[in-house]
User: What shape does this take?
Amino acid sequence: MIKLLFIGDIVGRPGRDIVNERLTGIRREHNLDFVIANGENAAAGAGITGTIAKSLLEAGIDALTLGDHVWDQRGWENEITQIEHVCRPANLPASNPGWDHLVIEKRGFRVAVFTVLGRTFMGLKADCPFLCVDRMLERLKGQADAIVVEVHAEATSEKQALGWYLDGRATAVIGTHTHVPTADACVLPKGTAFICDVGMTGPYASVLGREVEPVVGRFVDGLPRRFEVATGDVRLSGALIDISPGMARAEKIELLTVRS
Assistant: This one.
């Protein structure tokens, strides 16, 4: 059995710290072959830098994906092409720099991963995720033994629809972006592992990883405030997936939560 962990959005220094502190032990405990993580909030809660991307890969992550905060850090558009094992969302305009997918290999087994941004309640310009996954699956024929599709989206309906759309065509469809882990992990009828959101890796004594008071204040009176990354109740959250190597279908998916 091939074992893969997909880690949800790494938020700021607390998220980076728990990855650095716990990932080696998690890999050993669960006998993991692959670790994929979304790193789009790793730099102060918004975006990523070259230094941070390299440190997360050195901590034991095999592939880093990104989301709608992909270009938030100044200069990252120049760094992204210089760092292997990092990819930006596949349905951004083709003029955007960076790889739109990754293929990683362990034990002679190849896993392809790519991200699509949802379009419901999302601000970043992106092509239709449904048409994009069709194009990507066609491109990846013969290049991988399993395909993991990350859906970085706001609407649970859009994520679920894409999961059913890809059932039997992708090995796993993993939701990210909303930072709250959902209780719907399952293997769909044709063998695709699915979950609406794996949650975030960062401080849970927060509002989606940010300090509570300024966020609540903004909701109450609408005045602008600086939303600093919180620090309390840090957890690593992700999805553990068992993949049958012969059929490249998922056998099991479950949510994993590790506290610091």
Summary: The chain is about 25% helix and 25% strand. The two ends are 28 Å apart (CA to CA). The first strand starts at residue 2 and ends at 7. Residues 2-259 form a domain with the Purple Acid Phosphatase; chain A, domain 2 fold (CATH 3.60.21.10).
